[in-house]
Structure formats: structure tokens, C-alpha cells
Amino acid sequence: MKRLVLVAVVLAASFAVASPALGAGFSPESMTYPLDGENRITDSFGDCRGSGCSRSHEGVDIMAAKGIPVLAAGDGVVTWISDAPSNCCYVGIDHGDGWMTRYIHLNDDVEDASGNFVPGTDGEGWGIAEGIVEGSVVTAGQLIGWVGDSGNAAEGVPHLHFELRRDGVAQDPYQYLLHALAVWSGTFSDDDASVHQDNIEKIFARGITVGCNPPANDRFCPDRNITRGEMAAFIARALPLGATSGTPGYGDVDGHLFEVAVDKLQTAGIAFGCNPPDNDSFCPDRPLTRDEMAELLVRAFGYENPEATDFFTDDTGNPFEESINKLAAAGITVGCNPPDNDRYCADRQLTRAEMATFFVRSLDL
Ligand SMILES: [Zn+2]
Q1: Could you tell me if 79 and 141 lie in one domain?
Q2: What is the distance in A from the centroid of ligand 1 to the CA of 211?
Q3: CA of 57 to the centre of ligand 1 (A)
Q4: Which domain range does residue 32 map to?
Q5: Ion ligand 1 nearby residues (CB, 5 A)
Q6: How does the average pLDDT of the chain come out, rounded?
Q7: Ligand 1 centre distance from Cα of residue 9 (Å)
Q8: pLDDT at 17
């Protein structure tokens, strides 16, 4: 089935070649996002590469599964390509006016009958779309290949190494990619009308959310209240929390979808129980309240309230009042009654979309 879909796309792509559109004017601000499928951008331009930092990373790595379609970021001509089995697979597109984008580590493994890529078949598979050769004229968004682990990524995880060059000099494409992702409405089908859509795309790009309907995960459920368990998962993905105790101290997360996330948060001292004073339950399916959000974000990201300002009139005596004030001092939240904003509404619940925006502010995305 998957193969049939790919063939159909390839056919469409070869017809697109018949109407060249070079010269429309490439601008990285308006480039097309180069992947069509679940992926995560890493802010990795300029990172050390090679032994002893012998070279600098001249692109951005976008993590994605093998076989995810790779698209041309703009109109142009393919001027740099290798699909030789010995050196597979990469593509470079000249967009004119000195601009070039490069797509490296395209797939080179064989796909078996059930659609799995066979390990150890490096150099024998396909990674570049049919009809894409040196001199091909391509249009923005056209399929040019598929994500893989070819070249020096063979020992690592599959990803697209994406480069943006001007007059041969590598430029940092990270912010352009975030912008391209924000204007692309493809990730989730149900958030196009949400004022939080850009922020949902940003946290998706950081791997903080995967969607609300696994395994398809093509919806975000922006208007649904976020649960304590989902919040734990967001934080566990946002922070480099690897450690788990293996013995969650909460009686109600055993076997839960978010057991590992809650365990990571507890091990890191971020989690807190939902039934004081015992606090031996986490209530992963209970909607998160605004005061709990404040406490979790402060524990996760470490905000301070240096002037000890008391921002709100309605949170006196709330066990999380200190964190509420820290969150306000950091500018992450304002009150719940604009324009006065002198109340916090600690008991109010939050939608998943609102939480996306709080994460974008918390992480300064
Ligand atoms: Zn790379």
C-alpha cells in the first residue's frame, strides 16, 4: 500500500518537472518546510563535529523516521546529487541568486514487503525520487527523496541533514525552519483555526507533543483540557530527563500511558502528588489546574521572584502561591481577568492549546 502511494507521488512529481518555475525568487523567510511527516528539528547549526571539534556542523539535523518524504524547500535546479550505491544519497538545489539548499543522509536501505527498512542493506536501496537527476527543475514542495541514515549517519539515527547556503557559505537555517513549520498546516488537522497553532507547531517541532490520537497522531485536540499525565509527558520531553527510579512512588500510575514520564519527573524532583498530605497518588487523568501548572513549570524551569512581588489578590493561602508569583515575575503568565489581571484563577483548567503557548514562553521558542 505504501509503495503504491509512493509511486503515485513520484508520478505527480515527474509531471511537475514539465512546468519549470525557476526565477520566482527564493527567500529563506518563505521557504517550504522540507519534510512531510512527524519530525523534530534540533538547533544544531555550528555544533562540534569530528574528533576534537575538527569541523563545525554546517546544517540543522531534523530527526524523522526512515521513509518520511523530503520536499524541495523552494523552486530551483538540482545541481548536486549522488545516488551512486557507493556514495548514496544526497541532493542539492540551486535556487538562484546565490541560494542553495542541501538534503543529506537520504535513505539507502531496502524496504521489505511489510514496509520495514532492512538493516545492513546500506547502499542498496532508494532514497532519491524518480526523475530527480542533475539538472532537474523542481518546484517548492516537490518530493525529492526520503529520510534515511546514509553516509556518515549509518551508525546513528535516521535524520535529514538540511543545509542553507548563500554564495557557498553555510547559513543557520534554524529560525527559517521554525517559521516554515509554523506556516505549514500539515502536522495536525484540527488546530488550523486555533490562535495557538503556531505555538503547537513549535512544541511539536521540539518533540514536546506528538498528538492526541495515537498511533495516527494527526490531531492535537487543542480545546481539550490537558491532564496532569499529559503535562508530565510534555515536561519529560522538553527537558533532558533520562533517569527513572523504576519504582514510581505513586500508586495510580502503574501501567499508565504516562508512567515513565511521571517516573522521570518524580526522579528529578519535579512531580508532586495530588492528594495532600499523603501525596501517594498522581491523578494522571485529572485535568491540570492553573496553580498546579505554575508549580510544575517553576520546578521544571526554575523561575524566581527576586522582588518577592505579590501579583494576585485571589491566591492568598494557595499552597502554590509562591510558584504562581515566580511564574508571573518571569512573564510566563499574566492574570485571568484582563486588563486588570490582578486575579490568577488558580482552580481553572487549561486547554492543550493554551499549554502549548505556555511552553513556547517557558522555553523561549
Ligand atoms: Zn547534520
Answers
A1: yes
A2: 26
A3: 6
A4: 4-183
A5: 59, 61, 161
A6: 86
A7: 27
A8: 35
Q: Which three cell numbers stand for residue 274?
A: 495530588
Residue 224 forms part of a structural domain: yes
Pairwise CA distance, residues 344 & 346, whole Å: 6
Instruction: Give the Å distance between the CA of 79 and the centre of ligand 1.
Output: 20
Please give the pLDDT value at position 186. Answer: 60
DSSP 296: H
Are 339 and 225 found together in one domain? yes
Q: What stretches in the chain show pLDDT beneath 50?
A: 1-23
CA of 42 to the centre of ligand 1 (A): 10
Say if residues 314 and 344 touch (Cβ distance below 8 Å). Answer: yes
Q: Are residues 70 and 112 in the same domain?
A: yes
173 CA → ligand 1 middle, Å: 12
Question: Tell me: the pLDDT tens digits for 55-102?
Answer: 999 999 999 888 888 999 999 999 999 887 667 799 999 999 999 999
Do 136 and 254 belong together in one domain? no
* Bridge partners of residue 60, in order along the sequence: 162
Q: How far apart are the CA of 62 and the centre of ligand 1, in A?
A: 8
- The verdict on pTM exceeding 0.85 is no
- Cα(56) to ligand 1 centroid in Å equals 10
| pLDDT for position 22 | 47
Q: What is the pLDDT of residue 156?
A: 74
Spatial CB neighbours of 106, under 8 Å, sequence gap ≥ 6: 70, 88, 89, 90, 91, 127, 128, 145, 146, 147, 148, 150, 160
